[in-house]
UniProtKB/TrEMBL annotation:
The keyword Mitochondrion is assigned to this record: no
Alphabetized UniProt keyword annotations: Coiled coil, Membrane, Transmembrane, Transmembrane helix
InterPro entries per record: Methyltransf_11, Prob_Methyltransferase, SAM-dependent_MTases_sf
Membrane-spanning segments: 20-38
CDD domains documented for this protein: AdoMet_MTases (cd02440)
Coiled coil regions, renumbered to chain: 55-89
GO-annotated molecular function: S-adenosylmethionine-dependent methyltransferase activity
Name of the protein in question: Methyltransferase type 11 domain-containing protein
Amino acid sequence: MGSAEEKKAWRLPVFFRSKLKVLLLVVSTNLLSVYFFSGANYAIVGGSDVLTRELNSTRLKLSESREEHAQLRRRLETASGLLEALLSELGRRHGDQAASDDLDGWPDELLGELKLAAGPHKLPLGYNHNLGTDELFPTLGFACRRFQEELTRYMSYEVGKECPSDGVFAQRLMLKGCEPLPRRRCLPVSPKGYVEPAALPESLWATPPDTSVVWDAYACKNYSCLVNRGRGRGSHDCNDCFNLKGREKSRWLADGGGLDFGMDGVLATKPKGTVRIGLDIGGGSGTFAARMRERGVTVVSTTMDFDGPFNSFIASRGLLPMHISVAHRLPFFDNTLDIVHSMHVLSNWIPELVLEFALYDVYRVLRPGGLFWLDHFFCTGEQLNATYVPMIERVGFNKLRWVTGRKLDRGIEKNEWYLSALLERPMT
């Protein structure tokens, strides 16, 4: 194994590794300089024909040199990456610790697939004016740095082979703020016996085949179980929303004049055909989007898979699911959506500041004149008047419709209330 002095002699301190990298960079630069400026010099003599031939020849050689330069640069980058990995491994084996400034907020030095996924990576063509840098930084939630051990587990797989069946584990990382997760170089598990989905519009109200889902992550192993558990005792997220022949079939069709707004009445507040695209935050099994599609409106539904295949179910209906949490910045450009809807999800279970940021984010993505349908927002009576009404007013929406009503499912003594509101982003 060697003496303590021998181990110490082999140890590579951080400052030595940094100096070695600089030395390699200098050597590489000098080699490139020698390569490009040691070529033959061409004397231009004779008439214009000779000059033209020499210019064409020079142009051809320059083009060839550029290609060789690109190839050489790629080889140097590959060699640099291998050298860096080698130095990291040597440092790990001999007890070397990277300086905190080199870790970019990570508790420990990144290794393996996680290091490759986190980047950054040098752009093959150098500095890019649109990006403002010569590096590409893969998108990764900053909170991922707090869960490096779990993220390393998530990124442990065989490249090019089947991914681990870890949907629940991955979603928990997302809910901790590690969102988006890094990309992986493995293949998702495919459902066994998968068949083509039903065609539109029949697919909007047809329960998908069980073979459209990988059921490993869920207590239920088929859609029949999901439909029937809504009729049983116990609480589940979106308890009966997989039953398309039950309450889902009548949602948003009628306007009772109270908390339940009718979809047609909401759309009638705008000139016909001007509500075209929208978002449903916490869209459950996608019924709001289905009803909107029947009216010519395309709606994206954000949803999480809380012990049920919500994303797969929405997709099987021929609709667009988006697997992001309520804390995620809405992935749409400013002033683009005609309508945003949210039922139950944006409510008092969310920390007040987080909710206020979310409301401003809704305002941001709505176009001027766009609609925000806040559907059955729930809170206590004290919170409604002291916190949430002032919060909504601060954001600056116009109130087109505003209805409050008691929430009685847990008893009148709880003093819980619902708010349903149709809000509008001002035109100016």
